[in-house]
Structures are given as structure tokens and as C-alpha cells.
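Write out this protein's structure.
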Amino acid sequence: MEAITGRTIVITGAASGIGKAFAEGFLAEGASVVATDINEEGLISLADAGAITSVTDVSVDAEVRAMIDLAVAETGRVDVLFNNAGYGKHTRVEDLADGTGECGVWRSQGGDVVRQSRCSRGGCRC
């Protein structure tokens, strides 16, 4: 895929799952990949495949800045930022306590996901 050959793609949450699959695919297509995650062990195989890796907690601004600085220092550019990192709670969204997850993670263009889920099930508490 010529469109990504030589491009720099920074992928957060790249140590496993979808992030890892995309990182591997982009590497195979000739992109420069900066793979980041809090799981250092999960990044090893990507480093072995040619990715630049960085242990980064995306909830820490200084670490995010360092991640971008690394990408620019190593490749001279950032063409794509693939925001894949996240966290999950093993519970139903509507059962979360008020105020839980109501920062940027649960926001969507349509509003507050927690509120929407609670209201859609008849348990509107917000």
C-alpha cells in the first residue's frame, strides 16, 4: 500500500489486540511505526519486527509529549496518530457510580456515554 510506505504512524495501546495487529500490518506495508503501551513486554515482538517502541502511559501528559518527541527524533515526522489505548471496567456501564469515567474517556460526540446508557435502560440517574 503506497499510501503508508515511509509514513510515520504512532500507535498507542500497541502491545496487544487491535493495536498490535495494526502495528504489524503497518510495518508490513512499509510504514515507520512508533508502538507505545504501558505493557513493555507486549512491545518486544514489535521492536523485533522493526517498530520503534516506547513505554507510555497516555494518561500522563509528560509521557505523551515524550512519545511524540521520540517519534519526531527517530523519523523526523508524525503522519498519523492512532489513538488506540484505553482501559475497561468489567461491569455494566449503567452500574458505575455517578462520576465514574465521566472524564474524556466516556465522552462521545453525542454526549455522555454513561448517561446515555443509564437513560436508555430506564435508570436515568444523572
